[in-house]
Amino acid sequence: MQRLTELALERALGRVFTRSEVACWVGGSPGRQYSLLKRALAAGEVVRIHRGLYCLARKYVPQEIDPLVLAQRIHGPSYISLETALSHHGWIPEAVYAVTSVSLDRSREFDTPLGWFSFVRVPQKTLYAGVARVENGRGDGLLLASPIKALADYVYVHKCDWDSARPVVESLRIDESHLADVDAAEFGSLSGNYSSKRVRRFLEGLRKDLDP
Predict the structure, then answer these.
(1) Secondary structure percentages of the chain, helix, strand, coil, to 5
(2) What is the pLDDT of residues 153-197, one digit of tens each?
C-alpha cells in the first residue's frame, strides 16, 4: 500500500481529501507531494474526482461515498436543491441520477468517476435562506434546500410561468398532501429573498392556493 493511501485512511474525512490536505500530511516540496499522489493514482489506490479533489478507491471504503455530501466538496458554497432535494424529501417519485446544487457562482457541471454533478446559478439575497444542515444515515452533514426552496429554484432555473399549485402537482407529480404540510411563514421569508419576479409570483400564487 502506498504511503499516501495509508495517510488518507487515517486522516481523510469521509475518505475524500484535497491536494492541500496532502501537502499538510506529507510536508516537503510540492514535487515530493505530487510524486506520492501520482504513485497512489497509478496503483489504483486513489481516484481523482476532479482537479485538486481525490478519494480512496472503492476497496478501501466500507460504504459508497454519499454524492450529496460530496457535492459540497466539489464546488461551494452551494446547497442541494431542485430535483435532487425534492427526491430526497420524498416529494417526487422519480429517481434522480445527477446531483443538482445551487450556488451564486456561474453554472457549471462536473462529470466525475463518482457521478454527474450540476451546479446552477440562482441569484438571491441570502444563499442559505430556506436551507438546513441535515445528516445522512452515516452522520455526515450536508446542506439541503427545503421543498419549497427547491421548487422556487426549479421555477427560476427552468423559467416556469407558474402561479398556483396545479402545475406543481401536474408537472412534477407532487402529492397535494405534501404541499398541505408546508409552513406558511416560509413563503414570506423566501419571497423576499429572490429578485426574480417569476419566482415571487410563483411563491405568492402557491401560498394563496394553500391558505385554508
Answers:
(1) 45, 20, 35
(2) 999 999 999 999 999 999 999 988 898 888 888 898 899 999 999
Nearest to 60, CA basis, from 97, 11, 117, 115 = 11
So what's the pLDDT on residue 16? 95
Q: Quick one: cell of 194?
A: 429572490
Angle at 173 (CA atoms; ends 130, 141), nearest 5 degrees: 35
Instruction: Name the residue type at position 161.
Output: D
Domains along the sequence of the chain with CATH: 3-60 (1.10.10.10), 67-210 (no CATH)
CB under 8 Å to 30, separation ≥6 — which residues?
A: 23
CA-closest candidate to residue 154, choices 122, 119, 187: 122
Enter the pTM of the model.
Answer: 0.92
Residue 163 has a pLDDT of 92
Contact predicate 50/80, CB 8 Å: no
The pLDDT of residue 212: 63
What are the angstrom distances between the C-alpha of 116 and each of 20, 47, 96, 98, 113? 24, 15, 11, 5, 8
Helix (H) or strand (E) holding 203: helix 197-210
Mean model confidence pLDDT for the chain:
93
For cell 398541505, name the residue: 180
